[in-house]
Recover the amino acids of this structure.
């Protein structure tokens, strides 16, 4: 894991490369991805290596709505990695706190993992480690140990506009490595778009992904990341530099890279180029042209808006809490073993809330259903609307 800080970052001098491949059907993803890997000379890079694939599964809907990385896109990448003798692992944490397993199921990711016989990891239910990030905005965070244990990390973002950040891509996809309610706490540490963008860049500096493949076969315009309209853009983009990839992809949908704050800040700290003249674009460039996506109506970022956001995420960070049901506990201690802070020693004892991170590892990993989720009474209606389509059977 790359633990360098901004002060030691060097500006990127070399031209970075982005490869575009025309792809009008998700059944062709495997070969297109292999073609991209070939351009980067990666045909032998994955042999006997554990390769983490990190899709974008925020609020899963039907794959045809283009709100998340399409499961068949994930399948194609899995098959490409396996063909190159790598060992793919799929990992993600959704924004529906405490329901990542269900989110991955609804999104079709678990089905793909089972059919392709590959491991999938719920970042809300895996071992975590407190990391000292020492960034401009983000100082420390509990992150999955798996990020350090794999040999290769590949981001699989979805091409979308975004009502807060204008555009969302490979750099912003890193938010999904943060487990549970810690995502809401990141918003508390970084209220306002500028602070949040810098925190996201902090995360990218620390958790350096080796490659990114953009699912732009079906994309989203307008009020993204979840309420926009589907656009059939028919391409896949790949790069070993996430900043360059985001710069090219935003330009292809009519958004200047300089107008995307996350991309611009990442450029300023030396993660990659924002200037298209410093990026080499290869592949099916003749078949993929620029088009202007409908832009979102951006949220107000004045002082009042920032204060409102802070209050919202303050409430959201404490909205859902795990709760032990003693009568169901068989004292297997899986909850205690996975808790990174010692907030729970057994399902027979109360959870020490002051230590609880709301990462939901205890809830997601309990094999006996002895951990339920307790929602603040004032927020139940709002949460049920947010989690529409989820069973919510364990919500007290």
């Amino acid at each position: 894991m790359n633990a360098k800080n901004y002060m030691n970052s060097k500006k990127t001098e070399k031209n970075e490369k982005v490869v575009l491949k025309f792809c009008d059907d998700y059944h062709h993803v495997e070969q297109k991805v292999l073609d991209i890997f070939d351009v980067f000379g990666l045909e032998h890079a994955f042999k006997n290596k554990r390769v983490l694939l990190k899709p974008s599964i925020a609020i899963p809907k039907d794959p045809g709505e283009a709100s998340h990385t399409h499961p068949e896109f994930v399948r194609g990448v899995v098959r490409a990695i396996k063909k190159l003798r790598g060992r793919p692992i799929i990992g993600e944490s959704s924004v529906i706190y405490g329901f990542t397993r269900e989110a991955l199921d609804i999104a079709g990711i678990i089905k793909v993992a089972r059919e392709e016989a590959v491991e999938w990891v719920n970042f809300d239910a895996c071992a975590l480690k407190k990391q000292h990030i020492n960034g401009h905005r983000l100082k420390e965070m509990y992150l999955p140990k798996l990020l350090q244990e794999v040999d290769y990390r590949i981001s699989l973002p979805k091409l979308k506009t975004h009502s807060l950040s204008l555009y969302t891509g490979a750099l912003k996809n890193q938010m999904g490595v943060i487990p549970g309610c810690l995502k809401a706490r990141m918003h508390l540490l970084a209220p306002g778009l500028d602070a949040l963008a810098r925190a996201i860049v902090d995360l990218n500096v620390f958790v350096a992904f080796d490659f990114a493949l953009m699912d732009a076969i079906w994309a989203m315009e307008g009020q993204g990341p979840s309420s926009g309209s589907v656009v059939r853009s028919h391409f896949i983009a790949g790069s070993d530099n996430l900043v360059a990839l985001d710069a090219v992809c935003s330009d292809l949908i009519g958004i200047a890279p300089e107008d995307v704050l996350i991309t611009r800040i990442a450029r300023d700290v030396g993660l990659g180029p924002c200037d298209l003249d410093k990026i080499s674009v290869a592949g099916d460039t003749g078949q993929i042209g620029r088009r202007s996506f409908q832009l979102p109506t951006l949220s107000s970022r004045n002082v009042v808006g920032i204060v409102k956001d802070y209050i919202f995420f303050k409430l959201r960070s404490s909205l859902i809490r795990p709760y032990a049901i003693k009568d169901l506990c068989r004292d297997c201690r899986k909850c205690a073993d996975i808790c990174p802070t010692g907030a729970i020693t057994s399902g027979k004892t109360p959870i020490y809330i002051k230590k609880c991170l709301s990462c939901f590892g205890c809830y997601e990993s309990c094999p006996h259903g002895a951990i339920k989720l307790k929602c603040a009474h004032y927020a139940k209606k709002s949460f049920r609307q947010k989690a529409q389509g989820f069973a919510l059977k364990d919500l007290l």
Confidence is low (pLDDT under 50) at residues 1-13. The radius of gyration is 20 Å. The longest helix spans residues 303-317.
